[in-house]
Design a protein that fits this description.
The structure is a single chain. With about 210 residues, the protein is of the alpha/beta class. It has a single domain, classed as Ribonuclease H-like superfamily/Ribonuclease H (Nucleotidyltransferase, domain 5), CATH 3.30.420. Helix content is about 45%, strand content about 20%. The chain is built from nine helices and five strands; from the N terminus they run βββαααβαβααααα. Strands 3-2-1-4-5 form a five-stranded mixed β-sheet, sandwiched between helices. The radius of gyration is 23 Å and the shape is globular. Keywords: Exonuclease, Hydrolase, Nuclease.
């Protein structure tokens, strides 16, 4: 029997420059990870940690304020090497699909791995749920994570920009979208008998 498919709902938070006009040498680094592991529609594991940035270890005031994070929290976090090893361990445990809200998480992870001279930890499929949501509902612009869950009449888990809370919120949207896709796939077009009310036609010709 083949191993059941594993879904890894992943969210990262990143370092930020002090101003939006980024200096050329700056690049975002992962400073928090949230991971929700789902097998057979059941949450079987979760993980959350701060991560120490390597190239720019001192957080800017803008970053600390926006993420409500302290320098001490990040300094006590796991190393980036440990993070990559952990993600690789999840990836090799069984066939995995990584699901993120948007493409930035995987893009920054890949760039951070290149800068640290580490192999990219994932070998399976990656699904950008924000893009799937946009295409599914025919939106012109990409919707934010918290706005998307509110459009379903729900609230996001915990607080925004907390990596584990956002990973759980991504999982909740994933379930809602997948259920909608299944519902539409099962809905068959009406037959001609269903389109026409024959009782009304019979009454008309009986006159």
């Amino acid at each position: 029997m083949s191993a059941a498919q594993q879904y890894l709902f992943l969210d990262f938070e990143f370092t930020m420059p002090e101003t939006k006009t980024e200096p050329r040498r700056f690049f975002p680094e992962i400073i928090e990870v949230g991971l929700v592991v789902v097998v057979d529609d059941r949450v079987c594991d979760q993980f959350s940690s701060y991560v120490k940035p390597m190239r720019f270890p001192v957080l800017t005031d803008r970053c600390k304020s926006f993420l409500n994070i302290t320098q001490e929290q990040v300094d006590q976090g796991m190393s980036f090497h440990e993070l990559v090893a952990l993600l690789h361990q999840y990836d090799r445990s069984r066939p995995s699909t990584v699901v993120t809200w948007g493409s930035m998480d995987m893009k920054v992870l890949r760039e951070n791995c290149m800068n640290a001279n580490l192999p990219f930890p994932f070998t399976g499929e990656h699904r950008d749920l924000a893009m799937e949501y946009k295409l599914f509902f025919g939106d012109k612009n990409q919707t934010g994570l918290r706005k998307a869950i509110q459009e379903y009449g729900n609230e996001g888990v915990g607080k925004a920009h907390c990596a584990l809370d956002d990973a759980f919120t991504t999982y909740n949207i994933f379930r809602l979208v997948e259920n909608d896709k299944k519902y539409l796939a099962k809905t068959k077009p009406p037959t001609i008998g269903e389109r026409i009310d024959f009782t009304q036609l019979r009454k008309k010709f009986a006159l």
